[in-house]
Every structure is written in structure tokens, then in C-alpha cells.
Request: fold
Amino acid sequence: MSHRRILTSLAGLAAAALAVPTFAAASPAPAPAAPSVSTSATRAAYTGSAQDQAATKAFYDAVMKSAQAKRAKAGNAAAAVTVTYAVDAPTFRNQINSSTSIWNSSVDNVTLVEGSSYDFYYTEGNDPRGSYASTDGHGRGYIFLDYAQSQQYDPLRITAHETGHVLGLPDHYSGPCSELMSGGGPGPSCTNAYPDANERARVDQLWANGIASAAKAAYSK
Ligand SMILES: [Zn+2]
Reply:
């Protein structure tokens, strides 16, 4: 268990200041803010309103910025488009692996890869507001997976849905269960964890011309 998850149960700024995911210890990035200090205006929830879309875009922008910086450093613009993640969510390890498989077999123009030089990370804990994608106080994107919500809603669908935000898809809570980005909208009985044909096509369209164009096109009308 990471410091973050132990300390999330403690109130106060001291706890937040010490909340460092174990895998982030060697990273140059400063410690992420604890999820407990984020507000409804700074996150995109699994169940929520369209107002969360600005937060979804902020999350996506952070992930894109990281991925683009790495590509620029590598000096290889023609390299296969990959988005790299780290996992500090041991309870959801199987769901994260499955979500990656689902997405990598569903789209052609972008690939999710687990690695130490990560563009975003998964973490877990208890938050009354449920699961969400957000940015920490230092511009790093993360996906928070909530224990209680994952007992009510299908945890693989939650994980694959939040990962859909990484690939540029906005929430569409009014959609049917066959859509992944309808999230909690269709209710807890919906266990579909696969993007539908439109969602797959949208991701491939966004990433058809690489990271820079995907960063620009996603979440814009
Ligand atoms: Zn969402």
C-alpha cells in the first residue's frame, strides 16, 4: 500500500503533502495532490455532469503534453504513437491489464504501454465522489479508481471508461450501455467494457496523424 492510500484517510495538509505514490519516488515530478483535495470542478467523474468536460480536457492535455515532450526528446516524430502509464492501483491490476488489451485490440493508431517513463498513472482509494480522471497540482494526469464505486458498478467498465478519456473521448452519460463513454449513465447493471464502433472510429480518427494532431482535435467540436 502506498503512502497516499494510507494517508488519504487522514485529514489535513500534512497528510496531503506526504502523499507520494511509491512508484513516483524516483520521478522528477513533485508529489501529486491527494484526490481528497480535488473539487468537482477539477475532475471528470464516472458518474457526473457534462460540466466535467473541462476537467477531462485538462487531464487529456496533461497526458498529451507529457507524450509529446518524450517524442520531441527522442527526436523521432515517425515513431509509433504510444501513451505510457504507471500503475499504483494494485486492487485493479487485472482490470487495468484487461482495459489495455481491450483498447489496444480496438484501435489501430495509438497503443497503451505500461512503463516507468509514464505519461499518466492509475491510483486507487476511497472517495465519496467515485472514480475520475484528473490532473494533480503539477500537471500530471491520473486516473483515480474508487473502491466503493467499483463494488456497485463493474470495475472493468469503470477502468476502460476512464482510459477512454486518455485516448480523447469525452463523457456521454445519456448514451446506451453499448457505449463505453456513457459511464455510469445506464446504471450499475451495465457491464459492457468495450468501446462501440463509433467510439473506436473516433479514437482512430483523432490519432490518425500522430500526437500533435490528436492533442489539438480531441474535445473540440
Ligand atoms: Zn468519464
Remarks:
- Residues 44, 46, 161, 165, 171, 183 surround zinc ion (CB under 6 Å).
- The beta strands are 43-45, 82-88, 111-114, 120-125, 132-135, 141-146.
- The mean pLDDT is 79.
- The longest helix spans residues 53-74.
